[in-house]
Amino acid sequence: MATEILVKAGQLILSLSILVVLHEMGHFIPAKLFKTRVEKFYLFFDPWFSLFKFKKGETEYGIGWLPLGGYVKISGMIDESMDKEQMSKPPEPHEFRSKPAWQRLIIMIGGVTVNLILGFLIYTLILWHWGETYLPTKNVKYGIATDSVAQNIGLRDGDKILSVDGKFIENFASIPGELILREAKSIQVDRDGQQVNIAIPEGFIAQLIEKKEKYSAFACLRW
Questions:
Q1: Three-class SS string for the chain?
Q2: What does the domain layout of the chain look like in residue ranges?
Q3: ∠ at Cα 221 (219, 223), nearest 5°?
Q4: pLDDT given for residue 223 in this prediction
Q5: For residue 81, is pLDDT > 70?
Q6: 117-173, pLDDT tens digit by residue?
Q7: The domain 137-222 is classified under which CATH number: 1.20.120, 2.30.42, 3.30.300, 3.90.1310?
């Protein structure tokens, strides 16, 4: 149990770390592109001390000990570090406050932009990998089992539905919706190896919808 908890905690911290780093990269990259000095790039916060750090160029990269997020310290911009001292001095060309408004805007919204792109990317990959699970109509090899409603239409046990109003429906579970929402006029089935066209009685679907609505209203009153 303890090992499982540690693994789950580690997975949570790792996933949050990836999100934090990508978010901060959204600020870091445009700042660098616009030649704005980035003083620090940190995963987690580092009050008083950091767990790990190194300096490359003008930027200090590190990992703090307080896992509540992360930050990018950009010259001339008040951020999580709350460094107000530099604001009392005239702006330098490499500072955030000396850049055009459109560049400042891009730097500021860069993190949120990365979050949005990442969200779309994650869901796209999930759908691409797992997709939508459904039963193809052509795979219903043994036909359907009918109730009294289906039998009133003219369907029989073992009928294999070929189409609705001449339109093939790929997803078997979508057939009832097609019948009701489009108020279908006919169903084509394979019955014992022969194609049979079943005409749905006029007004039958409307009556079915009306009965269902009355039942739903009655059920709500009872509840």
A1: CHHHHHHHHHHHHHHHHHHHHHHHHHHHHHHHHCCCCEEEEEEEEEEEEEEEEEEECCEEEEEEEEEEEEEEEECCCCCCCCCCHHHHCCCCCCCHHHCCHHHHHHHHHHHHHHHHHHHHHHHHHHHHHCCCCCCEHHHCCCCCCCCHHHHHHCCCCCCEEEEECCECCCEHHHHHHHHHHCCCCEEEEEECCEEEEEECCCCHHHHHHHHHHHHHHHHHHHC
A2: 2-129, 137-222
A3: 70
A4: 31
A5: no
A6: 999 999 898 888 887 778 888 888 888 888 887 888 888 899 999 999 889 998 988
A7: 2.30.42
Give residue 215's pLDDT.
Answer: 40
pLDDT of 17-57, one tens digit each?
A: 999 999 999 999 999 999 999 999 999 998 888 999 999 98
Could you report how far apart the first and last alpha carbons of the chain are, in Å?
Answer: 43
Contact predicate 169/175, CB 8 Å: yes
Residue in this structure with the two tokens 């005409």, named with its chain if needed:
199
DSSP run (H or E) holding 58: none
Question: What gap in Å lies between CA 199 and CA 148, rounded to an integer?
Answer: 16
Determine which one of 24, 39, 80, 92 is catalytic. Answer: 24
At residue 65's C-alpha, the angle toward residues 59 and 69, to 5°, is 70
CA dihedral 91→97→98→99, nearest 10 degrees, is 160
Active-site residue 60, yes or no?
no
